[in-house]
Amino acid sequence: MRTLAHTVVAAAGSSPVRAMFFLHGILGTRANWRSFARAFVDARPDWAAVLVDLRHHGDSLDLGGENDLEACVDDLLLLADAVELPIRGVLGHSFGGKVALSLLARGALSLDEVIVVDVDPAAHPSRSARGVDTVIATLDALPREYESREAFRLALERAGLGPTMQGWLGMNLVRTEAGVRFGPDLDAIKALLRSHLETDLMDVCLAPPRGARLRFLLGERSDAVSPESRAKLEEAAREGVLELEVVPGAGHWVHVDAPDAVRAFLTRADQRA
Asked: Beta strand 113-117 with 213-219: parallel, antiparallel or unpaired?
């Protein structure tokens, strides 16, 4: 079976003894968190980072099977078997955060640290996927193939998408003999989003496996986490069940809005006794 496309990052001259998966959000790629993975391993050289392209993203296109969170976990477990170091941690942003929690809930790996960046662990089946629905509808109405990256960018611009969105989606382009094409299967992406919104993982957050350091990083201005879920996470943090940090002024794209704060959060070692 095919393993997910990935890149392993370690600090220069280090001898890491464990590794952490870094998981992007929907329509992202493993490149999204590269600089943060580098900062993480430089500050904590006993770790390596494994930057992952989740199914139907980046260089992990055309994977078979169901397109849901459970399939994403299956993919990660297959990859864990292929990586030389033991996987003892996982970080995920948005959709990737829900995958990270699904991996924790599966219990197949002994995880020391789980970092969840701005995603609601609870189910919200009727909720829009944070504007991604609009983006997917826009992509559905556009051609899949283009003469060049610039032609793709201009098509997005004419469709009303701004420069940040153009750059984000442009990372999904695949070279062809005629130019480029948008790589991800949009029907598969829609299925992954449905699973993300329909899956409730709050229970594992409120009672994580013993030994797992569960950490949440939320943007102050983000509405990705409902008030009800945020209240539950805050209560769990007060009880010492998990760690919770809210980044002032940051929206859902916490790592874009406040990169220094995110690096500081990631590089903070475990202070538990």
From this structure: parallel
Are 31 and 171 within 8 A, CB to CB? yes
Number of folded domains in the chain?
A: 2
Is the pLDDT at 272 greater than 90? The verdict is: no
Calpha distance 222→253 (Å, rounded): 8
- Mean pLDDT (the chain, rounded): 95
Hey, is 155 helix, strand or coil? helix
CA distance 3 to 254: 29
Domain span at residue 156? 132-187
CA gap 152, 174 in Å, rounded: 11
Give the C-alpha separation, 8 to 20, whole Å: 10
Dihedral, CA atoms, 135, 184, 37, 255, nearest 10 degrees? 0
What distance in Å separates the CA atoms of residue 178 and residue 42, rounded to the nearest whole number?
A: 41
Tokens 């008030």 sit on residue: 227
pTM above 0.85, yes or no: yes
235/105 same-domain check: yes
Residue with tokens 């829009």: 128
Neighbours of 161 (CB within 10 A): 18
